[in-house]
C-alpha cells in the first residue's frame, strides 16, 4: 500500500536514512541532491531521484529538507527555481535541519503569506535513528501544520515534542546540542581524571551510568563511538561547532551571562586548531587526552 508521495531535499546519510524509513511505511519517495554519489545511493534503495527542485515540487506537496545549514535552507526555499518558485499550492515543508530560529521564523512568515506551511523539526538520533525510524523531533510551527505532518513524522520518529511557535524547534535543538557539547567535554575530563586515578575507562563509564552523573553521552557516545575509538557517529566537528556557535549567539541575543556555556563554546571554537572539520564530533574528547 502506498501512503502517498513525499519529497526529500538532501540525500546524505540523514536524508537517505529518512527515505528508508518512509519507504518501509509505504510512501512513494522522491528526492534530489546536488551530489551524484548521494543520488546513486538513494536510487539504490528505491528513491525516485529527480533532477531538480522543480521536478520534486511537481511530484509532491510535502517536502522534507535535510540540509547542513540555514543558508542552504534559504537557498532551497527562496533561491531561483527553488520551492517558492515551483511549489504546488499549500505545500508543507518539514525542515529537519538544525537551523537558526530567526531565519526559520522569517521563512515561515513569507511562506505563510504565499499559502504554504513550514515546520521546523530538527532531529536527534543520527543516521542510525533516521534509518530505523526512531529519531526524536522537537517541533516548531502551527499546530495545524503539525497535524498535517503527523503521518510522516510518525514514520520517522519514536517521539515528537511540540515546542510552540515557528523557530522554537530550532531554538530547542540548539540548546540540546549545547548541552551535548558540554557533556562531551565534562565526561571526557571525568574519564581522564579516572584514568589518571587508576580506573579502567569502560568500568568508570559503567559506574557513571549506574549513578546520577550519567548522560546520553556516557550512555551512548562513549560505549558506541569513543571507548572503541571508532569515531564514526555520522555527525562532524564542523556541524557541532556550527551549532555551538549558534547557541552562543542566541545567549548573546538574549542578553544573558552564562559563564559555563561560554567556556564550552570557547573549547569547541579552539578545537578548530587541531581537529579537522570532517572528523567525527566525538573527537573533541581527544583534547582531554582520550582516544589517541
Question: Mind sketching the topology for me?
Answer:
Blueprint: E1 4-9, H1 13-24, E2 27-32, H2 36-45, E3 48-49, H3 53-59, E4 62-65, H4 70-78, H5 83-86, E5 92-95, H6 101-113, E6 117-120, E7 123-124, H7 126-132, E8 135-140, H8 143-156, E9 157-164, H9 168-196, H10 201-209, H11 216-226, H12 237-253, H13 259-270
Parallel strand pairs: 1-2, 1-4, 2-3, 4-5, 5-6, 8-9
Antiparallel strand pairs: 7-8
Helix pairs in contact: 1-2, 1-7, 9-12, 9-13, 10-11, 12-13
Describe the structure.
- The protein contains 13 helices and nine strands.
- It is α/β, with parallel strands linked by helices and 292 residues long.
- It has two domains: 4-166, Rossmann fold (3-Layer(aba) Sandwich), CATH 3.40.50.720; 171-288, N-(1-d-carboxylethyl)-l-norvaline Dehydrogenase, domain 2.
- The strands form two sheets. A six-stranded parallel β-sheet has the order 3-2-1-4-5-6, sandwiched between helices. The protein has a three-stranded mixed β-sheet with strand order 7-8-9.
- The chain is globular.
- The N and C termini lie far apart (50 Å).
Amino acid at each position: 500500500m502506498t501512503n502517498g508521495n513525499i519529497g526529500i531535499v538532501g540525500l546524505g546519510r540523514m536524508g537517505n536514512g529518512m527515505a528508508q524509513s518512509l519507504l518501509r511505511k509505504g510512501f512513494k519517495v522522491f528526492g534530489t541532491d546536488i551530489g551524484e554519489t548521494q543520488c546513486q545511493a538513494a536510487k539504490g534503495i528505491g528513491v525516485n531521484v529527480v533532477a531538480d527542485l522543480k521536478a520534486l515540487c511537481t511530484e509532491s506537496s510535502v517536502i522534507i529538507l535535510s540540509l547542513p545549514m540555514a543558508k542552504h535552507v534559504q537557498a532551497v526555499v527562496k533561491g531561483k527555481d527553488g520551492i517558492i518558485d515551483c511549489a504546488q499550492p499549500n505545500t508543507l515543508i518539514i525542515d529537519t535541519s538544525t537551523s537558526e530560529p530567526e531565519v526559520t521564523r522569517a521563512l515561515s512568515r513569507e511562506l505563510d503569506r504565499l499559502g504554504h506551511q513550514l515546520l521546523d523539526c530538527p532531529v536527534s538520533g543520527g543516521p542510525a535513528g533516521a534509518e530505523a525510524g526512531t529519531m526524536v523531533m522537537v517541533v516548531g510551527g502551527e499546530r495545524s501544520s503539525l497535524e498535517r505532518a503527523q503521518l510522516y513524522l510518525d514514520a520517522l520518529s519514536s517521539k515528537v515534542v511540540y515546542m510552540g511557535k515557528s523557530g522554537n524547534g530550532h531554538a530547542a535543538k540548539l540548546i540540546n546540542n549545547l548541552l551535548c557539547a558540554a557533556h562531551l567535554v565534562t565526561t571526557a575530563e571525568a574519564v581522564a581524571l579516572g584514568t589518571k586515578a587508576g580506573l579502567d575507562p569502560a568500568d568508570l563509564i559503567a559506574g557513571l551510568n549506574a549513578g546520577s552523573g550519567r548522560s546520553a553521552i556516557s550512555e551512548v557516545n562513549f560505549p558506541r563511538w569513543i571507548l572503541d575509538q571508532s569515531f564514526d557517529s555520522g555527525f562532524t566537528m564542523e556541524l557541532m561547532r556550527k551549532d555551538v556557535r549558534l547557541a552562543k549567539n542566541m545567549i548573546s541575543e538574549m542578553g544573558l551571562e552564562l559563564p559555563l556555556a561560554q567556556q564550552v563554546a570557547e573549547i569547541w571554537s579552539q578545537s578548530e586548531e587541531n581537529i579537522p572539520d570532517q572528523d567525527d564530533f566525538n573527537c573533541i574528547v581527544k583534547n582531554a587526552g582520550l582516544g589517541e
